[in-house]
């Protein structure tokens, strides 16, 4: 996400801008990537970078609805990545501490506003189910979803060796 902050800072200081609707970037997720490791400070770091992104954008989100929408999606993604991180098998904190953190995310007003603002019809059934759980603050569902997903990824890695 730090790359995004750099790009936004560069673009907002440009004299002109052309926006295309197409997707021209594909992020490849590698199973052995360090980004899959448990990170104890993930939430703090993610919120810090999101704050820098907001500062770089300044007043632009107020003027452009599409930008507001994309920021909402980015914030939802940040929270979901944090929940997945809490469900990571290498996280040695107690289950109560993990659930407390997920609970605090579900109660986060920015997340609730973001989840309410997105159109569920464009998402997959899995994504819709997680978004619905966040919207209703069903704390255990997103945690168990990501815990199960993490276990299935680990199982697939073992079977594919």
Q: Structural class, from helix and strand content?
A: mainly alpha
SS elements, strand count = 0
Total tally of structural domains: 1
* Gyration radius from CA atoms, angstroms: 17 Å
Helix content: 55-70%
Strand content: under 5%
Give the ordered list of helices and strands: HHHHHHHH
Number of helices: 8
Task: Give average pLDDT, whole number.
Answer: 86
Shape: globular
Distance between the termini: 31 Å
Give structural notes.
With 161 residues, this protein is mostly helical. It has one domain (2-13, 42-159). 66% of the residues lie in helices and 0% in strands. It has 8 helices and no strands. The protein has helices spanning 2-12, 42-57, 60-63, 65-86, 95-107, 109-117, 125-135, 140-159. Helix 1 runs parallel beside helix 2 (42-57). The radius of gyration is 17 Å and the shape is globular. The two termini are 31 Å apart. The mean pLDDT is 86.
């Amino acid at each position: 996400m730090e790359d995004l902050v750099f790009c936004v800072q560069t673009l907002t200081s440009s004299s002109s801008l052309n926006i295309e609707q197409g997707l021209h970037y594909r992020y490849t997720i590698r199973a052995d990537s360090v980004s899959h490791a448990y990170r104890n400070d993930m939430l703090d770091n993610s919120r810090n970078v999101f704050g820098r992104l907001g500062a770089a954008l300044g007043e632009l989100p107020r003027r452009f609805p599409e930008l507001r929408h994309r920021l909402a999606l980015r914030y939802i993604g940040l929270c979901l990545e944090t929940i997945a991180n809490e469900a990571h098998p290498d996280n040695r904190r107690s289950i109560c501490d993990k659930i407390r953190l997920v609970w605090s995310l579900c109660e986060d007003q920015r997340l609730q506003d973001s989840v309410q603002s997105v159109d569920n019809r464009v998402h997959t059934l899995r994504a819709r189910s997680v978004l619905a759980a966040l919207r209703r603050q069903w704390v255990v569902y997103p945690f168990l979803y990501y815990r199960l997903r993490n276990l299935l990824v680990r199982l697939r890695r073992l079977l594919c060796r």
